[in-house]
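hiii so um. not sure if this is the right channel but i have a protein structure encoded as tokens and i wanna go backwards to a sequence. like what aa goes where. can anyone help
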């Protein structure tokens, strides 16, 4: 699995330094865990985590659910290696390489969760529906992902320069509501991150392995990019549009209604 997809190659390459630069991801993991802590799960739940990376959310899961059996998965083997090292000593915690869009597990989970992995999926809705089919009755789906217009400042800067921004397009909250009518509570958050320059922002994405562009995007050369960004002045703010989805989806998509 290592190296077979550009997204996975990028995360594999970044795994050993990921946590030094993953402040927003750690923030989102904390927020997702705080929301989960308010929900009732069985005392010894079966949990599937998708796209676990180095285990930022996994650490919250073992703390919140000490009796749980947890399977933490990721497509990037180096990320899994880091996660294993970061979470050694937990008896009922297992790790496996798995593509979150091709689930190689049966059903019977009380919680399926992912922190900032869904935005890399080619069909996020389909992936969420596949998870829904693997939940026990009353089981929870809890995801954080990115929302429409994420990094609006970078999009605006590229538009002003006549450049393609290269970012992916993510489902709107309305689209999530359409696919999961009434059964997912949606909370949105804007998290600004400050960088010395626009180039530094791009480097920060690369440092966590999050630089793979949208499919079909033809990146301009580093030199051209530097020339275009010269004169931007110092300081660049890029705002994460974080979206938290939490619910107990029923098979019919008409599960318990929650207020975000
Ligand atoms: C931004 S990192 C988040 C990692 C971790 N959840 C965290 O909170 O730090 C995204 C993770 O999703 C994984 N990922 C991306 N696409 C995936 C896929 N199709 N299946 C499984 N994992 C995937 C990447 O390998 C990476 O570890």
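sure thing!! here u go:
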């Amino acid at each position: 699995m290592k190296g077979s997809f550009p997204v996975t190659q990028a995360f594999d390459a970044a795994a050993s330094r990921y946590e030094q630069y993953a402040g927003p991801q750690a923030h989102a993991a904390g927020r997702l865990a705080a929301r989960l802590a308010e929900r009732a799960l069985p005392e010894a739940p079966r949990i599937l985590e998708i796209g676990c990376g180095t285990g930022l959310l996994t650490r919250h899961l073992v703390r919140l659910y000490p009796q749980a059996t947890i399977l933490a998965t990721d497509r990037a083997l180096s990320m899994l290696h880091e996660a294993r090292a970061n979470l050694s000593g937990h008896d009922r915690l297992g790790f496996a390489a798995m593509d979150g869009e091709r689930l190689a597990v049966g059903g019977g989970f009380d919680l399926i969760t992912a922190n900032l992995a869904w935005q890399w999926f080619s069909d996020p809705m389909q992936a969420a529906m596949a998870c829904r089919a693997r939940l026990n009755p009353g089981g929870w789906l809890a995801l954080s992902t990115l929302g429409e217009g994420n990094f609006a400042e970078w999009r605006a800067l590229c538009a002003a320069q006549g450049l393609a921004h290269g970012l992916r397009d993510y489902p709107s909250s309305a689209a999530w509501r359409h696919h999961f009518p009434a059964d997912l509570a949606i909370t949105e958050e804007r998290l600004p991150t400050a960088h010395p320059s626009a180039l530094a922002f791009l480097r920060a994405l690369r440092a966590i392995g999050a630089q793979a562009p949208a499919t079909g995007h033809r990146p301009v050369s580093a030199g051209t990019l530097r020339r275009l960004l010269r004169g931007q002045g110092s300081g660049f703010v890029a705002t994460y549009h974080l979206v938290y989805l939490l619910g107990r989806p029923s098979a019919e998509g008409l599960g318990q209604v929650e207020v975000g």
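oh and DSSP finds ten helices and seven strands in the chain.
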